[in-house]
Amino acid sequence: MAAAPRRAGRPRRELKGVSAEANQLAELLLEQIDAAGLSVEAVHERMRSPAFSVATLYRRLRGELLHVDGQLYLDAVLEVCTPEEQREAVRERAEPLLGTFAGQRDTAAEENDEPSDSADGLASELAAARAEIKTLQQELLRVERERLRDERERLLASAADTEKTGQVVSAQAMRAIAQLGEEVRELRRALGSANTAPGTPAAARETAPPVLHQIPENPAETDTELETVHEAWRRMDPDGTRTASVLRRTLDTVLDGERTGRYQWSQLSKVEKTYFVSRVERELSHEFDQVGGQLMPFALDGVEVGIRYSSTGSWSIPREAVSKPCLLVRMDDSRAQCSAGLVRVRPEFLSESANRDGKRTLNRAGLAAVRHLFQQELPSNVLSGLSEEDRAAIFSRTSGQQRVEELLRRAQGVAIGRTAFVTVAKQAEGLKRARDARRSLAGQGIIVLGAVHDHAKALKGLGLPSLRKGELVSLRLVRGRPGRGGAPGIMLGADRWVPARPDDPVQELPYPYERLISPGATGQRR
């Protein structure tokens, strides 16, 4: 069968391979492209995540450096241009040519075993050029990786938002996310190759994770970078309260209670949990105003730090984090606890097996090496601490105002934040609904206090926790009577009111009670 006419493209130039075999392999590749009726640009576009530019492909098709990576380009061209049933025959034609390349490389290596004095200068220039190329490769790959990560986060956020509105995530969006994940993995492999010393066997380059930091040969030696990161973190967040606030804020954002009515981690979908992890990295960077390095999203005092999150204590470590200091964050929403630690992710600290992305988990030695930073209470969403019966009673109400009032009736004596109110009300004005509830709840003997000045004194008099801006607390009161003079209480006008017992009858509070709270008076009787 006659070959299809070659499509218009750049005119072919003279072959420039180092040997006749390299030129013959170039002709073989061009033959496959011509048979497919494609231009070189079209071939490049159809390759799956190529690690080389179209200009590099043109050079290989002129025979340049085919003796170095001819197998790579042969496989790439065959996959795009040659029918599967014909590929084996083409590979048989190429096999003797590729075999001669190995011999040529060995001969060149033997000839270079005894460098002459005149070659010393060239060797130095070559080493400098290689170092410059390596630096440029790393920078280009870093920029591309950041672009892919941002695009993947955008798609994940879009998919998460689609799930929240009850729609089905399109197959096209999920394919795009999977393709971006594959591109990120290809970039990681390419960067690993850029960091591999010349002469490393191909098999070793394919399987070994890239060494991105020189680990001290003696593990007992002081790890100055880890010490630097540890001290920097202790300065920024000594007790973990800032990190806990970031985790709570990020979780509430992804839960999106105002629209969905959700209030805990277990209600998130798998896509949303993935999005949460990537968003935590970004929010921590913003909270502590830290700019990432070449590979890691976080940098403390000039040291690149990886951030890994887990809800179970089993952290997945990607290849680019191997040998780097890593911040391990854990959050248990059901127990309202969070913690963090630091570890240098040494290869011997990782499990033998890896997942499809090449991520491995910390083994026992790795977990034992983690340096504890803090354990902190997670700012809780009060809905998580209620019983199923109470939550069912709250969400069974038909209007947002009724649900907010039911929440204040059933969650007494604890601080309730804005997030819980908007989740229950399913509207942005949830906190206003809570303030509006004061009148109707006063008829049931329930006082609702905030963080304003006079309310703060009443909180102290009633033995309630202090509140932050945007928080409210409710409590049922009754008038004090003989035998309860030592109980905490407040003065509302001329009467002393104390916390009610379950068997106390309902007594209506005077309203508006804000004007009746005696400044500085706690109602304690002597």
UniProtKB/TrEMBL annotation:
Keywords: Coiled coil, Endonuclease, Hydrolase, Nuclease
Coiled coil feature spans: 119-197
Superkingdom of this protein's organism: Bacteria
Annotated InterPro entries: DNA_rep_MutH/T2_RE_sf, NaeI, Restrct_endonuc-II-like, WH-like_DNA-bd_sf
Keyword Nuclease applies: yes
CDD domains (UniProt xref): NaeI-like
The Type II restriction enzyme NaeI domain, residue ranges: 229-507
Cited SUPFAM superfamilies: Restriction endonuclease-like
The keyword Coiled coil belongs to this UniProt entry's keyword annotation: yes
Entry protein name: Type II restriction enzyme NaeI domain-containing protein
Species of origin: Amycolatopsis minnesotensis
